[in-house]
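Quiz preparation item.
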């Protein structure tokens, strides 16, 4: 059976698949609140990876790179609901409720948790929209988003330091960030934004730190890791080339041969 990913209303996305599926890298510019209805999601991010189990709520912070693997349950279903909490909506909510934050969130970075009774009921209340038995008007859709914000803050008031932090990303340590994220296959503009820089500033600072252009460094870094995995971990390229950011095997093999002057089988 085919997988499906539907935009139910403006900020609600429903995903349903019937076999294990490896997702592509995605950049999330906005926060989103997700609920694992069925199956599991393994999410890879800068700090490592997490498993989002069935009946788990996850709050994903904005400006992150994430790669996923989606696993159906034993019954054969994978279902996930995601509610986008965009900047405009959050700013309006903060203005109406006189919320202002001047410090950053210092709590649990993973931000996934068993839902309380209210959050669980909230996601179940979205079923009529997902099943197309009811259509959400713009006003009703807005109310459902606001309800999600209310319930999040009720479950943990400290989440206001995440949701209502509208400060611009500051320029972070470029070497540390790129060392942790080089395997994500995204445009340089995304790397620039995530490090708090314009694309021109990113390229300029990159040259100062690494003494070479970003694209060349990223490619070399991926190939060096590939060499290590083949030579010392005895792994096959078919098992990891996507994880290192290569789009296809032929691209990987030709790049490897060009850099090392040998084939992967000759060093294995």
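Solution:
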């Amino acid at each position: 059976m085919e997988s499906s990913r539907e935009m139910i209303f403006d900020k609600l996305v429903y995903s349903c698949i019937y076999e294990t599926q490896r997702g592509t890298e995605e950049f999330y510019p906005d926060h989103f609140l997700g609920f694992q209805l069925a199956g599991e999601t393994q999410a890879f991010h800068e700090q490592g990876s997490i498993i989002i189990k069935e009946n788990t709520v996850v709050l994903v912070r904005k400006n992150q790179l994430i790669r996923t693997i989606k696993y159906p349950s034993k019954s054969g279903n994978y279902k996930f609901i995601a509610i986008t909490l965009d900047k405009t909506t959050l700013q309006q909510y903060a203005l109406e409720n006189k919320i202002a934050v001047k410090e950053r969130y210092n709590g649990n970075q993973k931000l996934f948790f068993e839902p309380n009774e209210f959050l669980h009921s909230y996601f179940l209340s979205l079923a009529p929209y997902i099943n197309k038995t009811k259509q959400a008007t713009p006003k009703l859709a807005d109310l459902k988003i606001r309800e999600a914000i209310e319930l999040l803050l009720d479950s943990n008031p400290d989440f206001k330091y995440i949701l209502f932090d509208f400060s611009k990303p500051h320029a972070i340590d470029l070497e540390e960030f790129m060392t942790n994220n080089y395997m994500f296959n995204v445009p340089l503009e995304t790397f620039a934004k995530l490090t708090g820089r314009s694309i021109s500033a990113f390229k300029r600072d990159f040259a100062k730190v690494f003494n070479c252009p970003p694209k060349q460094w990223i490619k070399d870094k991926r190939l060096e890791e590939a060499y290590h995995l083949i030579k010392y971990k005895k792994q096959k390229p078919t098992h990891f080339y996507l994880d290192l950011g290569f789009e296809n095997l032929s691209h990987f093999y030709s790049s490897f041969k060009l850099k090392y002057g040998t084939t992967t089988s000759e060093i294995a």
